[in-house]
Specification:
299 residues; mainly alpha; 77% helix
Length: 299
Amino acid sequence: MTKPSFFRYSVVPVLTVIVAIVGFWYVAALFMNHSTVVAEAQLKGLAFTPSATWFRSWALDKPLLPAPHQVIAELWRSTAGLSVTSKRSLVYHGWVTLSATLLGFLLGTLLGVLLAIGIVHQKVMDKSLMPWIIASQTVPILAVAPMLIVVLNAIGISGLLPKALISTYLSFFPVVVGMVKGLRSPETIHLDLMRTYNADDLQIFTKLRWPASVPFLFASLKVGIAISLIGAIVGELPTGAVAGLGARLLSGSYYGQTIQIWAALFAAAFLAGLLVLIVGWSERLVMRLMGARPERRVA
């Protein structure tokens, strides 16, 4: 069987989608910024040619929709062009958000795993907790975050922990659902086989249920780490934080700096993608250590 070409089947489709998105973005920026350019020309008594209007639409200081090259230039200037300790550096703000994300993700994962173990082994917890866990995610995080921040500030807790708790609130749910599914995934015949060996509940858990749940756990962690980042950013909005990607979004909206807003959005997206990749690499390593064979791709 001929090995499929990596460039043809992986690189070309991705590049095609990127080129299409960038092209659509430039056209959208042209139409959205056109009225601003016309108003600017009338105010200054200038007469732009159609081509000059187009180029000016992609070079405004405060456009409604910045062009891709403006966002890339802002990303470069606020990352490589500044010291990482600068209050205007996206690296500095990204680290502040990442700290709350990782703490919240760790707490959410621990809470989710413990709840899943209890739900699988105790019918009372299954009947009583599971409906409330599902109901907890129907409350909009934008409504929960300010209340949580105010309550925690009232009892003297501020700084990193309130943002991390919002990340915990979002990330524990996929872990609970995934782990409950994973811990219940062993078939009845396998459970009966363990009981014929006189295995107790702890042995069944450590030798059968837990190994079977690991793929489900990592699938949940990929979702959990991404929404932990969202929780940390949302947690920075109601506090009026001066540091973090949420703070950059907030200050950009205050002063109409749309280029800054888009740069912070792309930085957050890059950070989320990197975290998901790290979880994916961890999954491959753990599965390899557990002796699992890599899946074969079908051409």
